[in-house]
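Notes from hallway chat w/ T.B., transcribed later so I don't forget. T.B. wanted the structure written out for a chain they're using in a teaching module, and asked if we could keep both sequence and structure tokens in one place. Agreed to drop them here.
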Amino acid sequence: MASTLGMDESLIIPYGFDKAKVSLKALKKEHGKLILVSALTPTPAGEGKTTVSIGLAQGLKAIGKRPCLALREPSMGPVFGRKGGATGGGASSITPGESINLCFNGDFSAITSANNLLAAVIDNALFYKTTRLDQNKVTWKRVMDMNDRALRSIVIGLNKNGVPREDGFNITPASEIMACFCLAEDLDDLRRRIDNIVVGFTADDEAVYAKELGVTDALLAILKDAIRPNLVQSLEGVPAFVHGGPFANIAHGCNSVIATKMALSYGEYAVTEAGFAFDLGAEKFLDIKCRAAGLAPDAIVIVATIRALKMHGGVDKKNLEPADVAAVRRGLANLAAHIESAKNYKRPVTVAINLFAATDTAEEIAAVKELCAEMGVGCAVADVFGKGGEGAKELAQMVVESIQPSYPAFEHLYDLNMSVEERMRTIVTKIYGGDGVVLTKAAQKKLALMEKNGLTQLPVCMAKTQNSLSDDASLVGRPKGFTVTVRDFEIANGAGFLVALCGDIMRMPGLPKVPSACAIKVDAEGNISGMKG
């Protein structure tokens, strides 16, 4: 796979027979076209954004182009929870799927260990009284890569050798170390970002930074191998750089800058995806990641399924198979909202209908194409699960033809000279379709604390439910007349953004009543079955 990219074998570090790490020395000046894949608001019916991303890349290969993929690594929280893995599906998958979904090359383990080393050093400094930190104003949390609601709020140090205080766990994808890791250009940039992490405040509300604890290089020692992007491939031999994995509902939702730039270095077209729908992952890709890394997409693809559109049109999940053009038309309001949001960034938009061949009808597909024609965007059916690249040739050709020879300077949705409230209001009104934002008293107090410390001149990462354009998961379709409530803020100063916690969103998910883990089986030869794709 590396040789097909023209990459010298000295730059490859094999991890077995079917996956590898790539030296950062392999990075060269990017020259490829960047294609961002997003989706409509997710439903239990499934949308298949990663599957379409892989299928689109294979479709580009099928029409004679040279593509590379840049994707996120799966977290084991969803693998064992509700959602399942994140390696695509059917004929549009990356391989080795089970290895990628479970402890892939040790990256998440390294990020978890680095995060928790910093946490241990903080409590050690509190014990020995060698820090300016107020024990009741520590903001740095421990993490683990598992859904465990019992650890959201805990009390630690309940022994004579500890300092008792309230604490809690986040899931690893929500760790600021993950965000720093994914936005860093190299090890030196990662060092700078870790140094700038705010771990808490003094009794006088002055920010305390990670660099004061003197262990940044120890964290880098844990992360030095993980920061090299992973190279695997799709089932049809498209190179895939799979690296980093923040969630888009509680973090910034994009694979690493390094992986994206590696794909742009070696691919004529780099296909990447951002988590959940356009209002979450894509907005953060465009306003956080692109701003930090100097990137800009050349084309945007929005994935929709007839099944999901029916659910947004009011159909129960149990009744999705019968044809229902009226429900599809009702659900199109949600797709239209995301198309309008994408148009804010002045890049060509194409809708990909991820085909469910057994149930989707010509009349339902025609309704989607009619809306897209009215809105002036391309629309192609993609049978990527069943036919792989062959089923994505029309989509691939349409996306290639939409890309223009050059674009004006890329403009972000908001300017950092705006107040934090104005930045959030811009996101809510222009992307979510809401009327504005409301800050609780706790959020106002936290924002004032951060303003006092000069920590607010940063992009905003909205942490909200993925199940609605609003902050209320029950409001499906295209809700109107709502405001978004910000109940608290967290500062990710090292990563370079401010996290606004909206509604009841938690940065440590819980498991469903019957976790996906219960379906996984391992035979005597070590073969795994029952893992969701």
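Follow-up for T.B.: Residues 107-128 form the longest helix (22 residues). Might be a good example for the class.
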